[in-house]
Amino acid sequence: MSDAGLAGARALAENTVKIAEQFGTTEWEADSACHGWRVHDLIGHMAFFFNFIADPDLVFPPNPSGKSERLNDAAVRERADLPHEQILDYYREQSEAGLATLAALQTEELRNNTLEMLDLGTYRLHQLSDAVSFDHLVHLTSDLLAPFGPIPHGEIDVAAAVDPAIDWMVAGLPQMCGEAVAAALTSPVALRLNGATERTFVISHGDGGVTVTESDDVPENVATTQATEFLRWGTTRSAWRSAVEVSGDRRTVAAVLDAIDIV
Fold first, then answer.
1. Which homologous superfamily does the CATH classification assign to the domain defined by 177-259?
2. Helix (H/G/I), strand (E/B), else coil: 194
3. What span, in angstroms and rounded, lies between the C-alpha atoms of 257 and 89?
4. Among 105, 139, 209, 237, which residue carries the largest CB count within 10 Å?
5. Looking at the chain, which residues constitute the CATH 3.30.1050.10 domain(s)?
6. DSSP E strands, the chain
7. Which residue spans of the chain are classified as CATH 1.20.120.450?
């Protein structure tokens, strides 16, 4: 679904620019719901992700931890003192360049080449568009805009990005938190999503570790949740217990959901 990921990334980039163009100093300096980041920092982070995609010679800030989230923090700190308008210009420039690169990565000669992404795992280049859709959709809906973030108004094209965002999550789950999920997984668990999209995945043991397979052939243990809620609790921004209906053995399902932490 990475062509859909490109469409989703493009739609959300347009949404981001339109929203950010309305900010005054108060909005830029407001604390986002992403811990430790202002709105200024959040827009700078999303621009940096595009910059990473567009510029193979980009020099990363020091990151001795080897963790992707610490790299993001370091990149935010490097740009923290830039004028707000410069951060918006940086976003405009890098989103344009990044979207052009994402389009190029869909071609047959490039799409299946792989890229190691620190502790996030290894992915096909065409999946980067799904990653951008995921990153933008989560940050915009959970960290920037009300009711969770500080900005009260703004239109987000959730429909364009929700499926590729979920594709990134299910591709990442075995690599980002597969060891913890495997330890909790005593029998298969289905994850049924509804609302913004209708999809069902089965989390089970496979060759070499945890597998997440899209299937309507569900086991006894099922976790049912709104797709947009999965974006929140699947990234540990909220508690799954207030957003998930469980059928089957609750202890088994709870252990698996407790282990999910997607970046």
1. SCP2 sterol-binding domain (3.30.1050.10)
2. strand
3. 40
4. 139
5. 177-259
6. 114-116, 122-124, 189-194, 199-206, 209-214, 221-226, 244-247
7. 2-157
- Is the N-terminal amide bond of 147 cis, ω within 30° of 0? yes
Return the CATH architecture of domain 2-157: Up-down Bundle (1.20)
Token pair of 215 as six digits: 């299937």
Find out whether 243 and 233 touch, Cβ atoms under 8 Å: yes
Question: Are residues 150 and 29 in contact, defined by beta-carbon separation less than 8 angstroms?
Answer: no
- In DSSP terms, 201 is beta-bridged to 191, 214
Q: Which residue has the tokens 């300096």?
A: 29
Could you tell me if 178 and 215 are in contact, meaning their C-beta atoms sit under 8 angstroms apart? Answer: no
For the chain, 263 residues long, give each residue's pLDDT as a single digit of tens.
488 999 999 999 999 999 999 999 999 999 999 999 999 999 999 999 999 999 988 888 898 888 999 999 999 999 999 999 999 999 999 999 999 999 999 999 999 999 999 999 999 999 999 999 999 999 999 999 999 999 999 999 999 999 999 999 999 999 999 999 999 999 999 999 999 999 999 999 988 899 999 999 999 999 999 999 999 999 999 999 999 999 999 999 999 999 999 99
Q: Which residues make Cβ contacts (< 8 Å) with residue 214, sequence separation at least 6?
A: 170, 199, 200, 201, 202
Is the pTM value of this prediction over 0.90? yes
Give the C-alpha separation, 114 to 74, whole Å. 25
Measured in degrees and rounded to the nearest 5, phi and psi for residue 150 equal: -90, -10
